[in-house]
Amino acid sequence: MDVKLAVIGAGPAGLGAALAAHEEGIDAEEIHLIERDVELGGILPQCIHNGFGKFNFGERMTGPEYATHYVEEVEDAGINYHLNTMALDISEDRVITAVNPEEGLMRIGADAIILAMGCRERSRYQIRIPGERPAGVFPAGTVQRLINMEGVMPGEKAVILGSGDVGMIIARRLELEGAEVEGVYEIMSSPSGLPRNVQQCLRDYDIPFHLNHTVTEVHGDKRLEGVTVSEIDPDTFEPIPGTERYVECDTLVLSVGLIPENELSKEVGISLDGRTGGPIVDEERETSVDGIFGCGNVVHVYDLVDDVTKNSELAGKSAARFIQGGTDRRVENISINAGNNVAYTVPQGIEKSNEEPVEVFFRVEREEENVKTQAVVSGKVIEENAKRVVKPPIMESLSISRKDLSEAEEVLIRVFEE
Question: Which CATH number is associated with domain 336-417?
Fold first, then answer.
């Protein structure tokens, strides 16, 4: 099967990218979405809390409501999609090998491919929690799906490890469903999720929140019986001897970070950024392999689904222009580098020849107050924003004008303390 555009992943990123490519002139029948789940929408159908769509639609929507808007647009446009379909491989000449129970093994050749596989949760073993392997240890997203979509309670007394947004939302959800949440434990000195979730999910429900703490052992045979929690030295991140405390629980929920899902990217030879875990992309969201684009959480983990959609629409339009204009679109890029108190930037390069402003997303490494976020070229500040506070959980951005970039080779993004 040969198509114009193949999009791997039909969550908010894939849906937004496919629709944008169609709006940019690619026929709907020439666009194919490949989704491993049994329905479109990605993670959104299990996110029944509100807070989605504030910036794109001017209202607070639930995850299913937000997803339904784009699913209906895809169906109305006549864009093709393959559900329950696993993409197994991508070749350098843009042929996808995929499989599903109805169509069997498929090979889909595409003029352009958009990667929109999203992200996955870190497991217990990636953060090295020792102990037995009893039932009752769950990633936060799995608990969310069990409660919201399967109607199954994972347990009656829970400990939450990590203060990621999903973990805090699950803490509230468990309390609402009648379970007891003994506490949320965070290894860092500040929350790893958004401040609004700390207030709305933990403080509003009097759920205990412990910073500089982690789970150091799991106890139980067939079923989890309890965990040991310990205070952590904030400088060495090592448990402090003598601070151990046993907590009885039948459920441990892990909210310990997300990793962009890039196994397919690695196999096709796409260059990855060691800081984000996602592909290195230019401002068009094209990766290091011609004709393959990335968008959404597969590139880096976003705070808001509205930003995922915005980023994905850019990737969809760029892929459409690539298809319409052929393969010769590589241009000279200016590198975007992370400076003082900046963990990473996306994109990692911008075009010299383009005249439009470009938005650069970035996260800081540590919290600071009363600072300026700056774009710097050869020691000269070309753009800056004053910020009352910057925090790692809150994504920042700068809109950079190119009027001062004609001779530049790099732009440095930094946080400057006033």
Answer: 2.60.40
Q: Assign domain 2-120+259-329 to its CATH architecture.
A: 3-Layer(bba) Sandwich (3.50)
Q: What is the CATH number of domain 123-256?
A: 3.50.50.60
E strand segments, 292-348: 292-294, 333-338, 342-346
Q: 390: which residues sit within 8 A by CB, 6+ positions away?
A: 341, 364, 367, 368, 371, 373, 396, 415
Phi, psi of 315 (to 5 degrees): -65, -40
Q: How does pLDDT run across 214-234, given as a tens digit for each residue?
A: 999 999 999 999 999 999 999
Taking the alpha carbons of 297, 303, 309, 312 in that order, is the dihedral positive or negative?
A: negative
Tens of pLDDT along 252-300? Answer: 999 999 999 999 999 999 999 999 999 999 999 999 999 999 999 999 9
CB burial readout 266-283, b (16+ within 10 A) else e: eebebebbeebbbbbbbb
Exposed, middle or buried by CB within 10 Å (0-12, 13-18, 19+), for 14? buried
Burial class, 23, CB count within 10 angstroms (exposed 0-12 / middle 13-18 / buried 19+): middle
